[in-house]
Amino acid sequence: MTATIGFVTDSTSDIPAEDAAKYSVEVVPAMIMFGGQSYRDGVDISRSDLYRRMTTQRILPTTASPSVGAFEEAFEKVLARGVDKVLSIHLASSLSGIFNSAFIAAKRFPGRVEVVETGQVSMGTGFLILDAAEAAAKGAPIDALKKLVADTRKRMQLVALLESLTHLAHSGRIPMVLAGIGNFLQIKVLISLYEGTVNRIGQARTQSRGITALLEHVRSWGPVERLAVAHADARHVADGLLPQLEENLQGFNSALRQKTYVIEVTPAIGVHIGPGAVGVIAMQAPSGA
After folding, report:
1. What is the pTM of this model?
2. How far is CA 58 from CA 35, 177, 197, 239, 268, in A?
3. What pLDDT is attached to residue 180?
4. How far apart are CA 125 and CA 134, in angstroms?
5. Could you tell me the residue ranges of all domains in the chain?
6. pLDDT at position 169 over 70
7. Domain over 155-284 is classified CATH 3.40.470.10
8. How far apart are the first and last CA of the chain?
């Protein structure tokens, strides 16, 4: 008899609520600290409220991983549904301590909970969860799902245009002095994320030039089979990107359109990239497909 498998992730995966419900994915919220108060990401503070406060207040928020206990509770909850095993899928360990918290919590459930990382964030993680959940629904065992994530994560790409460097500097991703210079010059920076490594790949003085550079990078990916446009309080920019992506992506068709998401990134990500950021996340088609 095929073992049944349940899924856990954290809120930085940005998996839409309807997809999480469809596959019974338990989402553990990251923590956000703002003005001396702690909030559960997406539970105690909404996207709109966070970005409003980031824009109007001078206090920059910070983030923290969910506790080990929070993951233990999530694993217990999913196992109580009657599944045989749990696969817990999380963002790059190089970007956050979330993976480590889940890994420690899993030790309480030897042989029943497995934890894997994706080398990605936002829908870069979310797409891998959906892939694994779809495979599990067809009867794939947990070892096959782990291999699927390990193999498919190499085809995940993310590129983003940031409106400001302030928030990345505050989170320790770049030196504060560079952020000050960049903001003074009104430079918008283009970054990529691949296999857990963030790279600065370009810059532009205007948003339109930044978008052009972003699209050039996206074109280099070739055909893709899943696609998301992500933004931080910049829905109008994200909506404007969609028709340009249709023109620039190889093999864009109705099937891909049905798998294309436009998402506002969760507050735990927005804290680090700042309001106005926009990005494209894609799962490349396999070589030779």
Report:
1. 0.90
2. 10, 18, 29, 29, 18
3. 40
4. 14
5. 5-153, 155-284
6. no
7. no
8. 33
